[in-house]
Amino acid sequence: MTDKTIHPDACVVGVDFGTLSGRAVVVRVRDGAELGTAVHDYSHGVVDGVLPATGRALPPEWALQVPSDYLDVLRTAVPQAVADAGVAPELVIGIGTDFTACTMVPVTADGTPLCDLPEFAENPHAYVKLWRHHAAQGQADRINDLAHDRKESWLPRYGGLISSEWEFAKGLQVLEEAPEVYAAMEHWVEAADWIIWQLTGRYTRNACTAGYKGIHQDGAYPSEEFLAELNPAFATFVADKLDHPLSALGDKAGTLTAEAAEWTGLPEGIAVAVGNVDAHVTAPAAQAVEPGQMVAIMGTSTCHVMSGDVLREVPGMCGVVDGGIVPGLWGYEAGQSGVGDIFAWFVKNQVPPAYHEQADERGITVHELLTELAATQRVGEHGLVALDWHSGNRSVLVDHELSGVVVGQTLATKAEDIYRALLEATAFGTRVIIDTFTDAGVPVTELVIAGGLVKNRLLMQIYADVVNLPLSIIGSAQGPALGSAMHAAVAAGAFEDIREAAGHMGSVQRHVFTPIPENVEAYERLFLDYLELHDYFGRGVNDVMRRLRKFRRDALEGKN
Ligand SMILES: Nc1ncnc2c1ncn2[C@@H]1O[C@H](COP(=O)(O)OP(=O)(O)O)[C@@H](O)[C@H]1O
Ligand SMILES: O=C(CO)[C@@H](O)[C@@H](O)COP(=O)(O)O
């Protein structure tokens, strides 16, 4: 530890705000030992059916959250994790958090979410727009078309396309569909920063989400002229709703307020780290801080993050940001919007009751049962190839109007066949991303896997075979929460920087899964079919997926 005055048993708390739950972990600073943990499921989960306040159905592609659910994590999971660790709260010297990225909160000047005000409680636009709210694709399309026409210099930093998941598309949607909410919103805040505001009592804006999701490059956002061309009332979006001094990752955002100390049971005045993103904090937790080491954080979605020593334009990446992951290197990000979410959708909607009954009788999950059955198959035995776009395509096509496909189904196709084809489809999606990075001059030399899906060994072997790289696995089951705790340790002054913290507190097991040559060869053939379908449906040869989305929207609005 850099600071020798820090107690040898000092701890930090990391809190990972995921899509469905928040997890807290208590970590010893000197060696990264995880002493205690607790999870709190958001009571409202993902609001994508009806708005709880009204009972009215939300339009297609909407995904909201309720901000009080995040505070409940501070009130429950944090004290439970400290109790689980059995450490005296006085030993905790800092707290750090990570969040899903581009989960956006419209707030008043003092940070109150608009949905908490009685006059807005029934307006869906006053709620948090979750990262996977995909209903701003129309706005994203306009941003992209205009940016291309004007040859905006920032566009290549985002692989040539801006996502509907990001701050600008969602902000423009609020303006155009709920001008009264837009007018009342003093700040359009990343939930990553909102939670730090709750902990410290002051608003800080982290450089990571600002760089990736907030289109902040070389010290500037998109210009007023650009925004005015999108919509004259949007011209001052940056100045009015977004702009705020940026804070570097690992810096101290402030100290824990008395109120937040009461919620969490932690000492008032301890260091609170600047807000950060679930994917990005995981890289140092897996000791992947050097160029070429790509980390895939596989959960409901997959994020791919990697540092590089060169600046390159990778087509369809989510972005490249100076110091976006660790200081001094270019931080690259790409991703797949649906991975575990696709498997969950399949289990919920497509698996016959007999499988559920069998899984229940054996005390295992349907995922585990289907995985076990699928694992007995040889590559290609199911005769299927699928596209992994049930939640759209984040990289490299950046299009959330795309959808899922399974080719090759017959009357003999079973649930485990399709499940395996879906696992493979997500591996092919990752392969496209890796190949695109390598072709653009940012070679991927190591793939490190983190996140909840590590537990599926068949899935891991499929990934090793499809990408033809040995897989390293993060040492922690709580990668993001550990990464947040490490940032807390840096903010508290225990380490010089996040690299030093990674050396002491991070961990990785190298080459846990290695490619099986005959599988590599078989997947190489299947991948060519995946690529052909990918380009056919995804690159404009056949726009049927976009047409179907529109047809569906029209039908729901009674227009057909
Ligand atoms: N055995 C399994 N195999 C494959 N997917 C699984 C399995 N068990 C759960 N899942 C999926 O994992 C996802 C949850 O991943 P997790 O990392 O815990 O969540 P998050 O992305 O919110 O952090 C869910 O989408 C679920 O469908
Ligand atoms: O978009 C990002 C990171 O940039 C993620 O926050 C988002 O994909 C959500 O990740 P999870 O699936 O909740 O792990």
From TrEMBL:
One of its GO terms (molecular function) is ribulokinase activity. It holds the Pfam family FGGY_N. Residues 12-282 form the Carbohydrate kinase FGGY N-terminal domain. Gene3D superfamilies: 1.20.58.2240, 3.30.420.40. InterPro entries: ATPase_NBD, Carb_kinase_FGGY, FGGY_C, FGGY_N, Ribulokinase. The keyword Ion transport does not apply. The keyword Metal-binding does not apply. Keywords: Arabinose catabolism, ATP-binding, Carbohydrate metabolism, Kinase, Nucleotide-binding, Transferase. It catalyses: L-ribulose + ATP = L-ribulose 5-phosphate + ADP + H(+); D-ribulose + ATP = D-ribulose 5-phosphate + ADP + H(+). Pathway: Carbohydrate degradation; L-arabinose degradation via L-ribulose; D-xylulose 5-phosphate from L-arabinose (bacterial route): step 2/3. Residues 295-492 form the Carbohydrate kinase FGGY C-terminal domain. Its EC number is 2.7.1.16. Belongs to the ribulokinase family. This is Ribulokinase. It comes from Lentzea rhizosphaerae. The gene is araB.
